[in-house]
Structure formats: C-alpha cells, structure tokens
Amino acid sequence: MEEILIALKEIKKDLDEQRQEIRATGINVTDKVSKNVNKMLEEKFLVWEKKYENLKKITENQEKRIYFLEKEARKRNIVFFGIEESEKSYENLENTVINWISQYLNIQLKHCDIQEVRRVGKKEERPRPIVVTFTTLGTKIKSWKRRNTLKDTYFYMKEDYPKYVLEKRKGLQEQLRIEREKGNTALLKYDKLIILPKTNTKRKLPTSPNSGTTSKVNETSQINKKNKIQKPGTPVIRSNSISEGVVKPGMLNFLVNKNTITASNHNPGKST
After folding, report:
1. Using CB atoms within 10 A as the burial measure, which of 15, 128, 192, 209 is most buried?
2. Contact residues for 38 (Cβ-Cβ < 8 A; gap 6+)
3. What is the DSSP letter of 141?
4. In terms of C-beta distances under 8 Å and separation of at least 24 residues, what long-range contacts does 57-66 make, across chains too?
C-alpha cells in the first residue's frame, strides 16, 4: 500500500513538472507569437503610413491645382446684380448684358467680347445675378474700372469668387474692420488680408537757397580771381606772397642795408 502511495506521489510530481513545463512552453510560444504578430503589424503600419503620406501629398497637389484652375477660370468673370430677368433664351440674355453694359458702363461690346453669360441661384421674385465671362482679361478690367458709375443706382458688380473664398473673406471682415480702426491701411485681396506698412510722413526741411547761392558765388569769384587773364598792354602785377617766390619790399631794404653795413666794415676808409 505504501508502495502504491509512493508511486502515486511520484506520478503526481511528474505531472506537476510536466504541467509547469507546458505552462512555460505556452508562455514562450505566446511571447514569440505576440512578438511576431506585433512585428508584422508594425511593418504593415509603416507601409500604410508611407502610403498615407504619399496619398496626402498627391491630394494636396491636386487641391492646389484645382484651386489654381478655379481661380484662373473665374479670372475673367464679373457678377452683375440687379439686371431685370426677362430673357427667354440665351441669345436674349447675351443681348441684354451687352445693352446694359453700353448704357450704364458706356462700353461698346460685341458678341465676340463675351465668352459666356449665365444666371446663378434659384429663381425667385428678385432677379438672379448674372455671371459674365469675358473673352479677354483686358475687357474684364476695363468693365471693372467703370463700376463707380453705378454708385447712384441699385445695380452693382462683384468679383467672381468660389464659395470657400467667399466664406474666408467673410471671416476676415471683422479683422479688416479692426485694422482700419487702428489707422492701418488694410484691404482684402482674394482670400488674404493685406496690411500695408505705415509710411513716414516727416519731411526734411529744404536748405536755404540763399546760402547755397552765396557759397556758389564765393566759389565762382575765387575761381575767377585765380584764373584771371592779364589784358595785353597792362603792367604785370604780382602778389607779395612768399610762396610765389617774390621778396617783399621790407625784406629787400633789410638785405640792402645789411650789405652796405658789411661793406663799410670791410672798407672803413670809405664813407657810406
């Protein structure tokens, strides 16, 4: 009986050891599997991240191109507001626009000067705005410069901006007002707020014209004195300047007297 108990204890001991080994092996396998799975996921994540960055760059470039193309497409457009909506066809609308521009902007246009005209928005009681695409940018600029002639009328003109630009300009209106209240020169250019630097209004005082004239006259007189030409037949008058090599009369008398005294000392028999 004791032998059986001993054998059972040994069997139990062996089972416990095997169980521990199985657990340890399971933990190791789990760790290895987890590491392999994490490694695979990291590699796939890096690949996905790289693809995402490439797609992001492509999308940004496409957005920039669309932005540029839309800006260029609307560059020759003007939106006119208040023109009566009574046309029955595209030809009628085009003629209405040409006649209106001739009457209110005093610009004579032909059909070849207009690329496209169209009403925008839902039809309501008041007339919808008209988007006019001119054939050339010069014709558009010429028409745009005449917008001040509509000051005392219920007509008006606006630049043709995309919806997101209009929203951005609307959001910049408050900042534009604040900058102008500060005394700054600010304006909206497309979708940006531009603040012009303040110019220094202080001016330097001009120098006195009399002083300049006097100095010039003095310089001229000095030059004339130096460059004065002696007239023929008149005696030459030299200056008494030692720098010119001419001995002054006082010095000449001194030398003559000195020579006379020296000669009398050598010949005392002669009278001076």
Report:
1. 128
2. none
3. H
4. none
Model confidence pLDDT, tens digit, residues 39-67: 888 888 888 989 999 999 999 999 889 88
User: Which residues make beta-bridge pairs with 194?
Assistant: 187
Q: Do 90 and 115 belong to one domain?
A: yes
> Distance (Å, rounded) from C-alpha 91 to C-alpha 86?
12
Structure tokens at 40: 């695979």
Q: Is 187 strand, coil or helix?
A: strand
The helix (run of H) or strand (run of E) holding residue 30 is helix 2-73
Q: What is the mean pLDDT of the chain?
A: 76
Beta pairing partners, 158:
79
Distance CA 189, CA 201 (A): 26
**170 SS3 class:** helix
Contact assessment for residue 86 and residue 160, using Cβ atoms and an 8 Å cutoff: no
Question: What is the SS3 assignment for 110?
Answer: coil
Q: Nearest CA to 144 among 193, 105, 87?
A: 105
pTM, full prediction: 0.52
Tokens linked to 204 = 């330097």
For residue 134, list its beta bridge partners: 114
Report CA 136 to chain centroid distance, whole Å: 27
* Residue 60 is assigned to a structural domain of this protein: yes
Place of tokens 């521990």: 20
Q: Is residue 243 part of a domain?
A: no
Yes or no: say if 133 and 116 are a contact pair by the CB < 8 Å rule: yes
